[in-house]
Amino acid sequence: MALVAVGTGFTARRVLVSPPGRPAAEQAAAEMLEFDLSSLEGSRVTSGDFSGRVVVVDFWATWCGPCRLQAEILSALRASYGSDAVSFLAINVGEAEDLVRSYVADEPFSYPVLMDPTQEVSSRYGIYALPTVMVVRPDSRIGYTRTGISTANQVAAAIDRALGSAERG
């Protein structure tokens, strides 16, 4: 099942919000990712905390089966890049903190989990199905967005492009 899911780009399509004028996959690379969210640890985390870094953002929910596979893929990538080069974040979309906390206790993430309970951030960026992965360049601009499972090769290529853009200034 997992191989079929990866090969087909399987996506959990529960409509999160009314589909926006343009889906996340069509977001312009010039658009900047901006957020101010709470982590499960209780601290505020903002996009500004990652200025000058490449950031991989995983939009997910507990009810989303493919999101589990996406988290496994991203955890393996995180281990191969190390925390100095790339930051990884999971943004839970539209769920209560106690539900997410309980889920993460059984299915831990290897990277910080942020909460978007009102779907303000996910709506702003056209996230309408899960999982959706974004790779944000060091200039805070979105360099890659994909709804459905992103393979390790797809995300690694996007990370490498973003790291290359940092070297070019």
Description of the structure:
The protein has helices at residues 2-8, 65-81, 97-106, 120-124, 152-168; strands at 36-39, 44-46, 54-60, 86-93, 113-116, 132-136, 142-147. The chain contains five helices and seven strands, in the order αβββαβαβαββα. The protein starts with a helix and ends with a helix. The chain has a seven-stranded mixed β-sheet. Strand 3 (54-60), helix 2 and strand 4 (86-93) form a beta-alpha-beta unit. It has a single domain (2-168), classed as Glutaredoxin (3-Layer(aba) Sandwich). 33% of the residues lie in helices and 22% in strands. By secondary structure, it is of the alpha/beta class.
**Residue-averaged pLDDT:** 85
Distance between the termini: 42 Å
Query: Which shape, going by the Cα principal axes?
Result: globular
Low-pLDDT stretches are 1-8, 17-29
Order of helices and strands: HEEEHEHEHEEH
Let me know the CATH homologous superfamily.
Glutaredoxin
Contiguous helical run count: 5
* CATH topology category name: Glutaredoxin
Strand count, sense and barrel status of the largest sheet are: 7 strands, mixed
Domains (count): 1
Number of strands: 7
Strand order of the biggest β-sheet: 2-1-5-4-3-6-7
CATH architecture: 3-Layer(aba) Sandwich
Report the top-level CATH class.
Alpha Beta
Beta-strand fraction estimate: 15-25%
Secondary structure class reads alpha/beta
State the helical fraction.
Answer: 25-40%
CA radius of gyration: 15 Å
